[in-house]
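Pilot study result, target chain (164 residues):
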Amino acid sequence: MVLSEPTGRLRVAFERTQASGDDLTGAMRRGVGLAQLTREIYRAERHGSDLAVAFIDLDGLRELNRHQGHAAGDRVLRLLVERLFDHMRPYDLVVRLGGDEFLCVLPDADAETARARLALVAAGSHDGNPTPSFSVGVAAVEPGDTSEALMSRADADLRARRLA
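Predicted structure:
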């Protein structure tokens, strides 16, 4: 069987999309997500628009895995990402950094807007299943920012809020 050019391009696009998603949660994989974050920083700089990131750490995953097993932990990870997708706009990014850490990238949003959005996630859901507990730190893009600097400020905000 010979693939036509359009069919071949569609297959490549499908494979690329499949490769960009985390198998467990459906969030964007780290490498792809960080590349997208860099693009969003450049876009915000070019257009003079806002950009906020939220560094999210799922609370208690290690203990849950230890006491109830990894399948329970996997369910909680999937539920958290589902709740994030429920409250994010279609063009916001949800990136799994690894383990129990996630990054939400919110174009055209300032830090206050990002905090409000994550507060909605934390508040619960309409289906009766509580949203898993998570800690969050937020940072807004500043002139000359790199993805590393922006994420570092969001991580520092998360740690400061845990100590408060």
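One observation from the pilot: The first strand starts at residue 28 and ends at 29. A full batch analysis is planned for the follow-on phase.
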